[in-house]
Amino acid sequence: MPKVGMPDIRKPQLVNATMTVIERVGLQSASIALISEEAGVSTGIINHYFGGKHGLLEETMRSILRAHGKTVTNALSSLPASAHKQRILAIVAANFEGQQANNKVAKTWLAFWSYSMHDNQLQRLQRVNEQRLLSHLLIELKALFSNSQAHHIAQAIAALIDGLWLRAALNPDGLSAQQSQLIIKHYLETQLQALHTQH
Predict the structure, then answer these.
(1) Helical axes 43-50 vs 10-25, angle rounded to 10°
(2) How many CB atoms sit inside 10 A of residue 39's CB?
(3) What is the rounded CA–CA span in Å between residue 142 and residue 132?
(4) Residue 82 pLDDT grade (very low, low, confident, very high; cuts 50, 70, 90)
(5) pLDDT tens digits for 162-194?
(6) What is the phi-psi region of residue 119: left when phi exceeds 0, alpha when psi lies from -120 to 50, beta otherwise?
(7) How far is residue 61 CA from its own chain's centroid?
(8) Which of 50, 106, 118, 156 could form a cystine bridge with 56, CB 3.0-4.6 A?
(9) CATH level 3 topology of 66-198
């Protein structure tokens, strides 16, 4: 976490510089010297406010998570509470549109996923993000399916989001948001159709 007193204007500047450098040279080569040069600040400022590269990476991920959370919240706020299918699709769309579809953000996420396997704090952030996604999905799915079915489908949708997002992030052509969302929409509609057939 950045220390108290970090100028607000500096935080997004340093976060953006971190993502730019990660996109250009990868996480391992993204040194404090390169990031500070990209941001136009001294290495001392980064070390003082963030305690080094790890602290800056953590703040970068928190920033992306905050922006993503706002995207989801805004998407849901525009839909009626009873529009469960539309709300599920809005949650899905939020993972493939806006900032999340930015190639720079995608590469930072990819680096974060890899790095978090060996870092407890970053792993905790990843778990928080995963639980938040599942929680949003379960609220809507439980209104349509039994409790056990809702949990199963939520896990499947989350796995589809992660898998499609990962494949898209590794694709040189970037993120195919529309195709990814169509695949998940088809899965959801298949589950809804199966539910209606049972009844």
Answers:
(1) 110
(2) 20
(3) 15
(4) very high
(5) 998 888 777 767 557 888 899 999 999 999 999
(6) beta
(7) 9
(8) 50
(9) Tetracycline Repressor; domain 2 (1.10.357)
